[in-house]
Specification:
By secondary structure, the chain is α+β, with helices and mostly antiparallel strands. It has a single domain (9-145), classed as Roll (Pnp Oxidase, Chain A), CATH 2.30.110.10. It has four helices and nine strands, in the order E-H-E-E-E-H-E-E-E-H-H-E-E. The chain has helices at 14-23, 62-69, 100-104, 108-114, and strands at 9-11, 26-33, 36-47, 50-57, 73-80, 86-93, 95-97, 129-135, 139-145. A nine-stranded antiparallel sheet has the order 1-9-6-5-2-3-4-8-7. A hairpin with a 2-residue loop joins strand 3 and strand 4 (50-57).
Amino acid sequence: MDRVEYVYTIGMTDEEVEDRLERVDTGVLALAADGDAYAVPVAHHYDAGSLYVRLSTDGSSTKLSHLEDTETACFTMYDVSGSGDSWSIVVTGPLRKLTGRERAQFDETTVNESFLELRIFDEDVAAVDLEIYELEIESITGRRTGD
């Protein structure tokens, strides 16, 4: 390590972690099934200790098939500035699909207010269904470059 450049990182405070979770719109959701990993960028919403992810499908979704087999999901957010300052947050826990009254709280208006605009690729918009999942936080780690 004599010639490898490095920078020290330190743990983020709970307030720093919550601030980033509330302000940043997207992260990467990592799932696994039968030894195969699948990671996908997703929009999220953080509110009072709960982390929600919005997932869409047109009936043939790789992420939803992996989701069914994933016991512990991993959600990662990060950023590196032009000056080299960086931070990252890793959240792990099981995913639980919202149903009934919980799902009803995320009507179209609330979804639009809570999440970044939905990114549609080659799907027929009329065939796309939205699902909201809560990542039940078991662990959360935040790191940033030191001062």
